[in-house]
Design a protein that fits this description.
This protein is an alpha+beta fold. It has one domain: Roll (Thiol Ester Dehydrase, Chain A), CATH 3.10.129. Helices cover about 25% and strands about 40% of the residues. The chain contains three helices and eight strands. Strands 1-4-5-6-3 form a five-stranded antiparallel β-sheet. Strands 2-7-8 form a three-stranded antiparallel β-sheet. The protein starts with a strand and ends with a helix.
Length: about 130
Amino acid sequence: MFEHTARVEMAHTDAAGVVFFARYFDLLHRAYEDLMRQLGFPLEDLLARGGQALPVIHASADYRLPLFYGECYRVEIRVLKVGRRHFELGHRLLKEHDSLCCEATTAHTLVQLEQKKAIPLPDALRSALLALE
């Protein structure tokens, strides 16, 4: 399991200071970017050097509790499945006292940008993800 902690910024909230439902995916994606850096596959390097990307091909979320401006939160990411061309992640966003705010699932595939085609995940990435499974 991978953990990421941060604080809710004003840009994530509506006029009442509550995180807007779609912005939860922004918070989760920041944690995902940190995970990929830790695994040795920073997304910016894939784009810059390899002309590749790992777009989300499916996402779903269940919202449990509101999250407010200024609150600290923690995202836990678990690897749910690793295939030849894609992988699935489970996310839990919690605030103080381990109160669950949101559970989400995302699926990602590796795409060669020039060809606009899914390609197999590198063995090193598959191995790194499987180590977290």
